[in-house]
Design brief:
The protein contains eight helices and eight strands; from the N terminus they run βααβαβαββαβαααββ. By secondary structure, the chain is of the alpha/beta class. The protein has a domain at 47-180 and 226-260: 3-Layer(aba) Sandwich (Rossmann fold). Strands 1-7-8-6-5-2-3-4 form an eight-stranded mixed sheet, sandwiched between helices. The longest helix is centred in the first third of the chain and has 23 residues, at 36-58. The radius of gyration is 17 Å and the shape is globular. 40% of the residues are buried. GO terms for molecular function: methyltransferase activity. Keywords: Menaquinone biosynthesis, Methyltransferase, S-adenosyl-L-methionine, Transferase. It holds the Pfam family Ubie_methyltran. InterPro entries: SAM-dependent_MTases_sf, UbiE/COQ5_MeTrFase.
Amino acid sequence: MNTEHSQINSTNSNATQIPLAPHPVLTRHYSSAAERVHYIRQLFNQTAVDYDHINTWMSFGHGEQYRKEALIRAGIKDGDTVLDCAAGTGVIAAHAQSLVGNTGQVIALDPSPAMLAIAQQRGVHCTVIGIAEYLPLPDKSVDLITMGYALRHVADLSVTFQEFARVLRPGGRLLILEMVPPPTRFGRIMSQFYLKHLVPTLAWLMTRRRDARRLMQYYWDTIDQCVAPAVVMTALETAGFNAVTRTVQLGLLTEYTAAWLSDSD
């Protein structure tokens, strides 16, 4: 396990920021930035029924337990109000529900109605259609924000992080799970072989659906083209977050954590 730390004083989260996309336009999938949202929503709607199955075998059956353990490491507690942003099929949201208890609340937000329908079948109580850049939540209303493997799908990291800061209460926490290719040449070659070539092929063979293969091709392309972790951490700091930390598990899995101390500092 490897951990990186960074801490600065809180800054004004309303400061004007230059748009910061997590990756360039992926012309293999869509031709312009304006087409990105429609493409992603359609792709995830089409693959919702197969999504959990693909992720289970892709993670060798350990994905759900890893997410639960990450929530515990992030300090989730009984009574918390949690926003699971880009919740997908509700894996993180369901685990969060069990951890916040009857006095807490978990809001699962996602732009894909089909994904949220699966989350509801999983037992997630509160689902909301929406995107990270425009959270339909009041200021200072959330204790913990989680985002699992979806940071690569937002349009603007700066706006997203400012929205996170807006809805977090003072003392609130942020947990972002992502995949980042290992820094070593061997590690990158192995992750590229697995995620770029093997996983999309197996997704097609197991589902016989071309859109499942396309989803996993898109998955790798966003990982491969995503901005460096240092850019993500700097963007969090610029939005006013403190104690920004990146922890690496198994060379590929990244956990970004941060604290929101106050919007008046």
